[in-house]
Design a protein that fits this description.
By secondary structure, this protein is of the alpha/beta class. The protein has a single domain, classed as Rossmann fold (3-Layer(aba) Sandwich), CATH 3.40.50.1010. It has a five-stranded parallel sheet with strand order 3-2-1-4-5. It is globular.
């Protein structure tokens, strides 16, 4: 397995109305052959976004539909794994500059600890973890 996929890649790959859909979908389809995973937090984050009226442009999904869609993505050819991270690395988390970085830094920790590259479009993650985080192209 090579990739830990962030919701900034998985959500647009699933949501055909997202501006990054074509690029994210193409990248994910290719990366799946290398082996891929998401964290529980990313899985739930994508479900949450699919249910959110703002991120779904006024067309939110019901929970059952959103969960089914993410599960189908995970089970598609070249299925993904769900990684459950360990205890937070306190020294790493203490380097976060604000509340929005805590989950991102934990995601980078999970990728680091699993020996995976973190596929993300999050500019903060890309800047903070250049040896782990990769912007899919």
């Amino acid at each position: 397995m090579k990739w830990l996929v962030d919701n900034s890649v998985l959500f647009p790959a699933i949501n055909s109305a997202h501006p990054d859909h074509v690029d994210s979908r193409a990248w994910l389809n290719g990366a799946k052959q290398d082996g891929w995973a998401v964290t529980v937090e990313t899985f739930l984050g994508v479900v949450r976004k699919l249910m959110n009226p703002a991120t779904m442009f006024g067309n939110p999904m019901k929970a059952s539909t959103a969960v089914d869609i993410v599960c189908r993505e995970m089970a598609a050819p070249h299925p993904g794994q769900i990684i459950i991270g360990g205890s937070p690395d306190k020294p790493l988390l203490k380097t976060a500059q604000g509340h929005r970085q805590i989950m991102d830094f934990y995601l980078a920790q999970v990728a680091r600890d699993a020996g995976l590259k973190l596929a993300t479009r999050d500019k903060g993650l890309l800047a903070a973890f250049p040896k782990i985080a990769v912007c899919p192209t």
